[in-house]
Every structure is written in C-alpha cells, then in structure tokens.
Amino acid sequence: MQHPSQTKLALYVGGDLGRYAHWRAERHLANCEQCREDVAALAAVREIVPELSEIPEIPWNRLAAEMKANIRLGLAAGECVRPDDKPRRRAVFSPLRAAVALASVAALLVTGLMLEHPFQWPDSSTQLRGERTEGVMVQSTRNGIQIREGQQALRLLHSGAQNVTFSVGAQGSMGAGYVDPETGYVTINHVYVE
Question: CB 3.0–4.6 Å: which of 75, 118, 152, 173 could bond 169 by disulfide?
C-alpha cells in the first residue's frame, strides 16, 4: 500500500485537494492508522499557526530614540577619528600638464606649416633632362602615377607592387592596376585631367 505524501496530507487537512485526490485520501485514511495520526498532528498545528502570526506590541518611540542616539554617537566618533587637515586639492598647474600642453601646441604649429607649404616631390626624370613643364600633366613615375601642375603634384603610389598595368586615355587620363602584395587585393587608380 502506498501512503500519500506529507504535502498531500497537509493539503487534505486544509481542504485544498481536488475532488479525485480528496476521495483517494479519504479512502486511504479509512484503512491506515499511521496516516490518520499524521492528519491529526497537521490539524493541531493548523490550529496553532494563527496564534503564532500575531505581532506583539512594539514600542516604536523608544526604538526611534535609540536609533537617533546611536546615529549621533557614530557621527561624534567619526569626528574624533578624522584628521584635522582638509583634503588636498590637486594642483591646477603641474609640470606634466604644462609639458603636454606645450607638445600639443608644437604639433599643431608643425601641422599647420606642413599644410600651408606642402612638400614637393621632385620628379627625377624631368629634372635630369632639364625639362620645364607648363600646364597640367598626367604621368607615370617609378612607384605610382601622378597629376602635376608646375611644381605641385598629386601622386598615387603603388610601392611594392610587382606587375602594374598602366592605361592611358586620349582625353588626358591615366590608370594603374595592380595586386597588393601584402593583402592580395586588386587596386585600380585613375587620374583625370580636365
């Protein structure tokens, strides 16, 4: 014979079992003395529980006064332990900050000068031959293609590439296509003159 669990017996005492489970529990209790004793014990505990849930009277005013006194005592103890000197503030001016500011200003000035007067790459082929170029010119160099006007040039470099294919258009355009040796990507550069 299988006995009901303590949970089912507790639900039976509280009247919280379903109809079929209640009928089965009653049928079992009719034949089992041990389970009837457990049900009687659970019923006795059920009668005591409401008395245990009552909250005794608490003197809230006395507790509040004790808490305030403890807080004041803790604050007073904290004042005794705290050092007399006030916390030091970090200096606004320090040598490290001054050095960083000076380096930033110097970098800004150098960048401005480089943008105002860009470096001009000399073209060795025209300088060796002593040629002077007038107007806009598109040409290939040893490591790229460029568009040049006077002493200023815009150069697209393909340094390190092995098999560069150049293409020249009749309207003043030039292109270079190559495989980048580091990444393996195909790169195509075009320069147009208008």
Answer: 173
